[in-house]
UniProtKB/TrEMBL annotation:
Gene Ontology terms: biological process: aerobic respiration
Membrane-related topology note: Multi-pass membrane protein
Keyword Transmembrane tagged: yes
Stated name of the protein: NADH-quinone oxidoreductase subunit H
Gene for this chain: nuoH
E.C. no: 7.1.1.-
Record-linked Pfam families: NADHdh
Assembly and binders: NDH-1 is composed of 14 different subunits. Subunits NuoA, H, J, K, L, M, N constitute the membrane sector of the complex.
Length: 329
């Protein structure tokens, strides 16, 4: 028993370290990819000075952020101001522990599932962690003792809480089809066909709500640079600003991975290994997010809230009713 426990702990630590390393590396290079792609869309060069093809630009930016002075405004709640940036990054990274990256492999006579933690309520844990991420925006804006930051935080929290509701409702038909709240079971239920073929409306709602949760154009109302001087993180600098920045790009990867798990069949696919299929499916969503940033304008706040409550919410509820009726019939 003691040997099995120790071996399981070692495997868990190794899997966690590998996932953490891969996610952080992909998030970092997603920044470079976005800058390059936006440059091409806007008929200009992206980063191209630091290293071949600008590949070392990430290292230069990292050194710059490390060396920048970490300021705390006068009158700020220092404790909350310091911990707020880490909440979003921590909760987003934690969700990756629930995502199955492949089937099972056999090492030294032991079966090792390619998922850090499989649980029967995996989707509920994901929704709970995404709700906790709202506190990062709220505390960052409030603790800064800056009225512009506070306004940005209020708008951001209202947006994120509102869009969480249709996002959650869009997943109800997926539970109904899979008969489980486990992400592993949901992926296994898509061996024959991906759920996007029978639930395109749910996939569209989930993608749009994920876009709003990530605070990306056309839903980047919490920042609104021309109105709020960068919004809820106006007073942040150095590595604490980098945590907010990194959290956004990790969120983009997480949205891609969840779209793959819920609607695109997860790691299932012919010829290639499971983790490669999951990576390819995940990469589709960040590309679309960059594309929308280079294409669409920012919505007005009233348009954003109107779209959530009067379009997405009724559409998600109607989709649930139709799905239940078809399954019952």
């Amino acid at each position: 028993m003691g040997t099995d426990f120790l071996l399981g702990l070692i495997v868990l630590i190794i899997k966690s370290a590998v996932v953490l390393l891969v996610v952080l590396t992909l998030a970092a290079y997603l920044v470079l990819f976005e800058r390059k792609l936006l440059g091409r869309m806007q008929l200009r060069y992206g980063p191209n000075r630091v290293g071949p093809y600008g590949l070392f630009q990430l290292a230069a930016d990292g050194v710059k952020l490390l060396l920048k002075e970490d300021l705390v405004p006068d009158g700020a709640d220092k404790l909350l101001f310091l911990i707020a940036p880490g909440i979003l990054t921590f909760t987003t990274l934690t969700v990756f522990a629930l995502i199955p990256f492949g089937g099972e492999i056999h090492l030294f006579g032991h079966t090792v599932p390619l998922v850090i933690g499989d649980t029967d309520i995996g989707v509920l844990i994901f929704l709970a962690l995404s709700s906790i991420g709202v506190y990062s925006v709220a505390l960052g804006g409030w603790a800064s003792n800056n009225k512009f930051s506070l306004i940005g935080a209020v708008r951001g929290v209202a947006q994120m809480i509102s869009y969480e509701l249709p996002l959650s409702l869009s997943l109800v038909p997926i539970f109904m089809l899979a008969g489980s709240l486990s992400l592993v079971d949901i992926v296994d239920a898509q061996k024959g066909y991906p759920f996007i073929l029978v639930q395109p409306v749910a996939a569209l709602i989930f993608f749009i709500c994920g876009l709003a949760e990530s605070k990306r154009i056309p839903f980047d109302i919490p920042e609104g640079e021309n109105e709020l001087q960068a919004g809820f993180h106006t007073e942040y600098s150095g590595m604490r600003f980098a945590l907010f920045f990194l959290g956004e790009y990790i969120n983009m990867l997480l949205l891609g991975a969840l779209m793959a798990v819920f609607f695109l069949g997860g790691w299932h696919g012919p010829w290639l290994p499971g983790p490669v299929w999951l990576l390819l499916k995940t990469a589709i969503i960040p590309f679309l997010l960059v594309w929308t940033r280079g294409t669409l304008p920012r919505l007005r706040y009233d348009q954003l809230m109107h779209f959530c409550w009067k379009v997405l919410m009724p559409l998600a509820l109607v989709n649930i009713i139709i799905t239940g009726a078809v399954m019952a019939a």
